[in-house]
Amino acid sequence: MTVHNLYLFDRNGVCLHYSEWHRKKQAGISKEEEYKLMKDGFLAFQTSRYKLHYYETPTGIKVVMNTDLGVGPIRDVLHHIYSALYVELVVKNPLCPLGQTVQSELFRSRLDSYIRSLPFFSARAG
Amino acid sequence: MADEALFLLLHNEMVSGVYKSAEHGEVENGRCITKLENMGFRVGQGLIERFTKDTARFKDELDIMKFICKDFWTTVFKKQIDNLRTNHQGIYVLQDNKFRLLTQMSAGKQYLEHASKYLAFTCGLIRGGLSNLGIKSIVTAEVSSMPACKFQVMIQKL
Lengths: 126, 158
Hints:
Chain B: It comes from Rhinolophus ferrumequinum (Greater horseshoe bat). Chain B: Pfam families: TRAPP (PF04051). Chain B: It is found in: Endoplasmic reticulum; Golgi apparatus, cis-Golgi network. The complex is a heterodimer. Chain A is of the alpha+beta class. Helix content of chain A is 31%, strand content 22%. Chain A has a 5-stranded antiparallel beta sheet, with helices on both faces. The termini of chain A are close together. By secondary structure, chain B is α+β, with helices and mostly antiparallel strands. Chain B is 47% helix and 17% strand. In chain B, strands 1-2-4-3 form a 4-stranded antiparallel beta sheet, with helices on one face.
């Protein structure tokens, strides 16, 4: 079981953050086009290769996480990423302007540690 | 906690507001820091009146500094100062290893150059509090690695 990658979008579709952990195949399109595909209204779906989880807040922040098929519903995880990480470290950081890509090292490293600590994350892509 | 977030967000806006209304240049940075420090001074004066209305008189200067480090810091930042040092000749260093206004910013060197803007108000807070307790001082702050910082208090003998 593992996590492939994670996107964070704001209500205008600006991609605030992107991280990847185990991504076996790069898509045949550029990063910008990939972001456009990702943000348009999914809830959760799966293909034979991966499962996409989606979480949207009333303020329009969208958390999109791709995992492999072994992972069940993870709404609480996505909620934690929003409230304990994004709100705490980005919204409350005066040096992170809202509506722009997040530059904060602290956010990136805490998010990384959190994902790696999840029970369904294994260091070896399964 | 809603009240903590309120003070934090308001403080951040205050810093950015002061800087926005100034023009560019090195001189302006100093003026902005002074403005923020003066705001903190007035708030500190008021706060200390409120906090000490039921406490007994302080024995001496060290007693006052300990009050700032424990009760005052806890009421404002929900934690105590982690370390207080003095040379017993009017200089005190207050060390906070996880300063509340910096913890969301970074855990190391990122954004270090901006840290002083977010410390100015608190320096004034300390100076104002001491001033209403009868102590004239100069308060400065330094950060080498976020979110730990040191506030240096130099007592001015009249």
